[in-house]
């Protein structure tokens, strides 16, 4: 997506490792990016996109591109900056985490050790 977004989300994953020692990387990912929003507030989400130099349309296009099995994650009635940013963060974090795991010869189901960064 965007280097600064990838960097921010990798740092968020690495910073969260200390809180998930003994848990799997999948648990960390699901708690951090699926079970709760990455960002809250329409204004904060709009500012986050601006901070990362991503237009609203780029973000929407990215999320739509990630649709799986023909099912849309975006319904017309709930398209807003919060929904877009949190879906974008979910998809990018998923990619970033997989790259991190591959680089460190780890699997999503591996347990997070104390020396994980």
Q: What's the overall average pLDDT, rounded?
A: 91
> How helix-rich are the residues, as a percent range?
55-70%
Largest sheet: none
- Sequence of secondary-structure elements: HHHHH
Mind explaining what this structure looks like?
The protein is mainly α. The chain has one domain. The chain is 58% helix and 0% strand. Helix 1 crosses helix 5 and helix 4 packs across helix 5. The radius of gyration is 15 Å and the shape is globular.
Write the layout of secondary structure elements.
Elements: H1 3-17, H2 25-34, H3 42-51, H4 56-65, H5 81-103
Helix pairs in contact: 1-5, 2-5, 3-5, 4-5
Give a summary of the structure in a few sentences.
With 117 residues, this protein is mainly α. It has one domain (3-103).
Keywords:
single chain; 5 helices; mainly alpha; about 120 residues
